[in-house]
Amino acid sequence: MSVTVISAIAGYDRRMGRWEPGAQDRLRQAAMELFAERGFEATTVADIAARARVTERTFFRYFADKREVLFSGEDLLQTAFVDAIAQAPEGQPVWTLIHAALDAGAKTLQETRGREQARAREAIISANEALQERELLKLTRLARAVTKAFQARGVAPTQARLAGDVAVAMFSTAFQRWIEPDQTRDLTELLHEVAADVQSITTS
Amino acid sequence: MSVTVISAIAGYDRRMGRWEPGAQDRLRQAAMELFAERGFEATTVADIAARARVTERTFFRYFADKREVLFSGEDLLQTAFVDAIAQAPEGQPVWTLIHAALDAGAKTLQETRGREQARAREAIISANEALQERELLKLTRLARAVTKAFQARGVAPTQARLAGDVAVAMFSTAFQRWIEPDQTRDLTELLHEVAADVQSITTS
Q: Helix or strand or coil: residue B169?
């Protein structure tokens, strides 16, 4: 298949530099391939743009830098958590709201990224200390967003803070199990198992 | 008082460059003062050494860089947590071991740093994003060290991971309350209150 045909399928008009349907997905796909092949450090934005058959300018229309390719889903996850807590009926206990938040987060993650992409992303992040630090920062921001959502519902500051930390600990523990090499179980199912584990720890 | 007299009190012989009792404490004190006065970024190792009346070479005998002045207590805290878990009698439930770890950590922190120094340190770290990231990394390392200590006692990996995260969430929540401006209560007492909060969340 010629480049022209591929470009036509992708909806890209190189001469016109028009908005291109699917460019963001193709850029993400190209970046993930290159990070896996060459490592994160050795991959440039020019490499990513070339493999996705777009200009560097198009890359920067979607991502601030190459790191953002790995972290751009962050807001979606946070929104899922926060909205689930904010929109739950009044009078529900904190534990029920944590469950609602985790289920919403799991749904978002499974829809937007999927297990294979999550595994590939994890492998890239594990190999780079700066990316690991960025990931930790993201998890801490998520915990504090959950804390704020609980405070907005009138939960006391200390409980709200603990609820945020516990929710994120549960999510990240279940997530790690979900991306294990031979794991086939659903993230939501694993989250419920992790919730039972937390209860057994704190009531032992 | 002349510099010579001060040096004599501090036990320092500039000509001989001998080991100097108290130099590490003086360097830490000087660094904390300068970080508070000028900010972390604007303070150099030369400034710190000058205020502590030692050479830069002496500074580097105790600390790898200026950031290490803020983080050198890290190992002590981790050792306190891990030893408490490793040395507890057999057959104790995870929750009891978490309590033992937190109490040991609180004791170490109160002995080595004290509330005023902890407050000063927190103010410096809050003002600098790179230091905040370093602090997060430290807390994550602490959580994983606790996880390993639990695994060494035969606790299943998922439970051990959650135990590490929950223990660190509890410690850092109690710590934040401990360094609040008007707080006079003991860290151990606050930890026990936080433990009750975690239980009320997970059993609500």
A: helix
pTM confidence score: 0.84
Do A104 and A48 share a structural domain? no
CA distance B142 to B126: 20
Instruction: For residue A92, give the chain B residue with the closest CA.
Output: B204
A181 with A101, same domain? yes
Question: Do B94 and A201 make contact, defined as CB atoms within 8 angstroms?
Answer: yes
ipTM above 0.85, yes or no: no
If asked whether residues B61 and B80 sit together in one domain, one would say no
Listed in sequence order, the residues at least 6 apart from A114 whose beta carbon sits closer than 8 Å to its beta carbon are: none
The model's pLDDT over A185-195, given as tens digits with 9 standing for 90+, comes to 999 999 999 99
- What CATH number corresponds to the domain at position B62? 1.10.10.60
The CA distance from B178 to A14, in Å, is: 60
- What's the gap in Å between the CA of A37 and the closest CA on chain B? 27
Please count the structural domains in chain B.
Answer: 2
Domain region containing B34: 3-69
Using the 3D structure, point to which of B69, B85, B106 is the last residue of a domain.
Answer: B69
* Helices marked H in chain A: 3-10, 23-38, 45-51, 56-62, 66-71, 74-87, 94-112, 114-126, 129-152, 157-178, 187-202
Nearest residue on chain B to A91, judged by CA atoms? Answer: B204
B115: which 2 tokens?
């509330």
Same domain, residue pair B100 and B191: yes
| Chain segment A23-55, per-residue pLDDT in tens | 988 999 999 999 999 999 999 999 999 999 999
CB contact under 8 A, B137 and A140: no
Q: Are residues A54 and A98 in the same domain?
A: no
**Chain B residues within an 8 Å CB radius of A140:** 136
For A201, the closest of B166, B172, B204 (CB atoms) is B166
Which parts of chain A register pLDDT below 70? Answer: 1-21
Final residue belonging to a domain, choices A69, A91, A117: A69
8 A C-beta contact, residue B59 and residue B51:
no
- A171: closest chain B residue by CA: B162
Nearest chain B Cα distance for residue A132, angstroms: 9
CA angle A67, A73, A77 (to 5 degrees): 140
**Same domain (yes/no): B59, B100:** no
CATH assignment of the domain containing A180: 1.10.357.10
Helix (H, G, I), strand (E, B) or coil at B93: coil
